[in-house]
Amino acid sequence: MKGGHGVPVMALPALGGGLGRSPYDSKTRNMTDSSASVNSAISDPLQIAKRTIEVERDGLDVLAKALVEGTALGQTLKDTITAIRSAPGRVIVSGMGKSGHVGRKIAATLASTGTPASFVHPAEASHGDLGMIGTDDLVLALSNSGETRELADLVNYCARFSIPLVGITSVAESSLGQAADHLLLLPKADEACTVTRAPTTSTVMMMALGDALAVALLRDRGFGPDDFKTYHPGGKLGAAFSRVSDVMRTGAMPLATLDTTVAEVVAFITQGGAGTAGIINGGQLVGVITDGDLRRHIGRDLLAMKAADVMTRHPITVTPDTLASDALGLLNRKRIQVLFVVKDGAPVGLLHVHDFLKEGVA
């Protein structure tokens, strides 16, 4: 789609021109009356809710089919990703009403997945917030009709300062559609509420397209779990991407040698408070002794025995770089409560199932 930088500024006041029509004028009334007669056949709330989801799902199906190699939308999406990657600044997302709410979510998703982004309200932009948009930025504007009046100054601003403009709209011939350097044209789909034509399917499609952009960009950037954890240090998401090094116990660990007596090992286990002791040889972890190991060897001479006679050899271990969630999964699968953390075979930490609970890893 031809860019807005070649569109005369005087051509843009048409934005919003189609919004003055009453939804109850004669042309629209005929359509909504017809839709109402169809919808009136369904009165059960659950059936209406189910039908709403089905219509929105159909919209997503149409959108997915339009995002394939060789289609206009597929090619534009690839061009948009290249444009965003090439922009030295941020992605500035803007939209009015329901499109604005979707735009805020898209901006938040982009920012949290490695693409710096901010939301600028189009009405506030006309009263000074245009100053938030730099010439290194790229603007992503959302308007289902493409004729949102409040976007006019923002579109003019992009044209004046040669700021790349990406438009998401359902109408290619609209003012936004004609002004956009990259037009992400939503395929035709019915709104879930045909009586009022309230934004439903269209906003779902916008949201999905924004998610598609964000995920494609993060994969293109090589954005991984460690990067995601940087932007999500709190809550369940942050905990899910914690590493063992973030959770493990360090400092004095319950460690003994092969020749240590079981009586001394019991003292180490008691002092350690984790129900286990590690057995080392030449600095390497070669075994563990747990309460279970002691019970299995109970007898008159147990306390005089050596650690090497009682220990479980080749213990299960993890490294500091292991995802905490993976380590917890290992504990659950093996039905154990404690793991030693090793680096190059040497013990550097200890993990107890309670440590995961304290950090919110589940």
TrEMBL record:
List the GO molecular function terms. Answer: isomerase activity
Ranges where the CBS domain occurs? 248-305, 311-362
Q: Kindly list the residue ranges recorded as spanning the membrane.
A: none
**Which CDD domains does the record cross-reference, listed alphabetically?**
CBS_pair_SIS_assoc, SIS_Kpsf
Matching entries from InterPro entries are given as:
CBS_dom, CBS_dom_sf, GutQ/KpsF_isomerases, KdsD/KpsF-type, SIS_dom, SIS_dom_sf, SIS_Kpsf
Keyword Cell membrane (UniProt): no
Keyword Isomerase applies: yes
What's this protein's family per the entry?
Answer: Belongs to the SIS family. GutQ/KpsF subfamily.
The molecule here is called Arabinose-5-phosphate isomerase
